[in-house]
Structure formats: C-alpha cells, structure tokens
Amino acid sequence: MDGKSRLFERIERLYDVGLLGQAKVVVAGCGSGGSQVALQLAMSGVRNFALYDNQTLGEENVIRHACGLRYIGWNKTDAVADLLKDRNPDVHAELHNQDLMALPDLDDRVRGAGVVILATDNEPSRYRLNEACVRTGTPFVVGRVFTRGIGGEVYAYRPKETGCLGCLEMFLERKPQRERIREIDLVSQEERDAMYGLPVAEIKDSPGLNVDIAFITNFHTRYALDAIARGLPERPKNMEPIEQNYLAWGNRPVHPFDKHFQVQRFALPPINGCRVCEEHTS
Ligand SMILES: [Zn+2]
Predict the structure, then answer these.
(1) Residue 78: pLDDT band with limits 50, 70, 90
(2) pLDDT reported for residue 184
(3) pLDDT band for position 282 (cuts 50, 70, 90)
(4) How far is the CA of 3 from the centre of ligand 1 (A)?
(5) Which domains does the chain have, with CATH numbers?
(6) Over the stretch 115-163, which tens digit does the pLDDT of each residue have?
(7) d(CA 42, CA 249)
(8) Ligand 1 center to residue 132 CA distance, Å?
(9) Beta carbons of 162 and 138 less than 8 angstroms apart
(10) Cα(182) to centroid of ligand 1, in Å?
(11) What is the pLDDT of residues 202-214, one digit of tens each?
C-alpha cells in the first residue's frame, strides 16, 4: 500500500469517504471563510471543486486565511488549490480568477453542483447567487461572521424544502435578537437598501480572531457535507441529516449573546410572500 492510498484509512471505517468524492463543490469566495471550508471538505474526502475569487492573497490576509506567508501575491484560487492538493492529491480544482456573482452565465456555473459554498462578504452578491440557486434548484450554504468575531451564522438552502435567503431576511425581520445583531454589525440602512443588486461598496467589517471564525467555518463545513450527502444516491454512514437549516453561534457574552458558546437554531420553510421564491419556483 503506498502512502497516497493510506491518506484516508483512519476515517474510512467511520464513514464512506468515497461517496463524497463524487460531488462537485462550487466555492464562491476563497477568503478566510471559503478557504477554511474548502480545506476541511478536501480533508473529508471531497475531490471536485470549482474555485472562484478575483483577488490575490495579501500579507494582511495571512492570520485569518488557510494559506500562509508563502502564498502572498498568489491568486487566492491558485493558493487554495495548492493547499487542497497538499492534503488530498486526488483533488481536482477548476480555477476561476473571477467573481462568480459577476458572471453573466451564473445559472450554468451553479447548476448541477452538489453544494455551493457562499463565502463572500458582499451582501448584494449573496442575493444574486441566492436567486441563481433557487432558479436552478441548487443547494447552497452561506456562512457569515459577525463584526469583531462575537459570533456568526450559517444558513443552508435546500431546494423545494427550505426557504431561501429572501425568506430568511423576511423571517429575521420579525425576530428581536436580529435587530441587535444588525446594530453591532454596523450595517447601515443605505447598505441594507442596496441589498437587492444595486451597486454598493462592500460592507467592511472587522471579523476578529481566526479562532472565532473557525467555529463558524466548521459549522459551515458540516452543513456543506450534509448538503452533499442529501444529493447522493446513498447516504454516507454516520452522517445523520442536520434538521435545522439555520444556526447562529455566539463566541462571547456580547450583545445579543449572553454567554460563551451559545447556539440558536431553527428550520425555516419557504415563507409566503418571498419575492425570490415566488418568481423562480412554481
Ligand atoms: Zn424565498
């Protein structure tokens, strides 16, 4: 047995690594979140990736990114692909040095994916991808770290089963704790008004320590594995379905969380009156 074939031998008995390798994962954004999720997926046996990002790795990225100093100046897609192959040589990655959400053929780019990893910090682009995924019936998982790393949230869209991001917004509007998250998140009304596709500068945030981000990227990865498993003909063993498709996690006892390591979660069905779901599903 050569070294390569032994890579997964310690986890093969735990679950069916080979099954996950069949799925294609589209990664929209290879920054601190996307890079960590992609790496975790490759180390879980996922082999087929399409990586999208139009930026290069800067020195200021290194303490929060999966890629370190030796990748400075590399396209983030090239850097992440190199890292994935270092952990799983069977990884095949299509590299696109482009912003996925800006592409005119967005629907074709996501159609057929086992899951789309939505990991950009740009609200309008998230909503554009949301629409494309609802239109094409493609599952996605979005992760977001709240300002200063006080916590974050993960949302899994499951076609024909859960609400979309538009549904989530409508739902959260009515939840009091979300109002307080917006305050601390420093999202201005102007930025919120532009959410549905108007040009607006990216929402600048200060996302805190890598250790705080890692809690969210780990949940993000788990939800992505769950999405892949849902699309396979056979469910991998020891990967029980995750029921609730929304999870908010608090790292610290900072408003709106009142203790360390706090979790809130719920399942969100499609919401009546969601413009995206009404337009793009029948
Ligand atoms: Zn919806």
Answers:
(1) very high
(2) 44
(3) low
(4) 47
(5) 21-280 (3.40.50.720)
(6) 999 998 777 888 999 999 999 999 999 999 887 788 999 999 999 999 9
(7) 24
(8) 12
(9) no
(10) 21
(11) 334 456 899 999 9
> Which one, of 175, 71, 69, 197, lies nearest residue 122 by Cα?
197
Contacts of 275 (CB under 8 A, 6+ apart): 166
Residues 6+ apart with CB under 8 A from 21: 45, 46, 47, 48, 90
Tokens coding 114: 């086992």
| β-strand partners of 143 | 154
Distances (CA, A) of 112 to 38, 115, 255: 18, 9, 40
Ligand 1 centroid – CA 139 distance (Å): 13
End-to-end CA distance of the chain: 52
Q: Cα of 29 to ligand 1 centre, how many Å?
A: 22
Distance from the CA of 189 to the center of ligand 1, in angstroms? Answer: 21
